[in-house]
């Protein structure tokens, strides 16, 4: 099977990064501003998260900072991997025992976010990204544009 031409892959990587990054930013914003840090920490404690005060802060930083980094295409392999691990942890801690579907509190949504973040980590940010700009500056090809 032939893959998409490089420009199409780069545009699709940009769209995926912007969409997924925005979702993470909004969830981090909700934890930080809408709910507030204290309520988020209480919520993590109620879900049985280990070290809930620290875990809530890590979640806020990962979701806000990682979401912004994804949107910019900065450190995409590392950020995507961390966000994927974060979502797997959310599935195991907050969504376990609720069936599969999100309507019942199941992990389908966070697993979809994990898969998207992992896909971006694997394919790279593409040409239209900070990672791509840094690669061009160093004279290397950006990750999402292999021949």
TrEMBL record:
Membrane-traversing stretches: 12-29, 54-75, 82-103, 109-130
Protein name: DoxX family protein
Main location, first listed in the record: membrane
GO cellular component terms attached to this protein's record: plasma membrane
Keywords: Cell membrane, Membrane, Transmembrane, Transmembrane helix
Homology family: Belongs to the DoxX family.
A matching Pfam family: DoxX
Membrane topology listed for this record: Multi-pass membrane protein
InterPro entries: DoxX (IPR032808), DoxX-like_oxidoreductase (IPR051907)
Compartment(s) of residence: Cell membrane
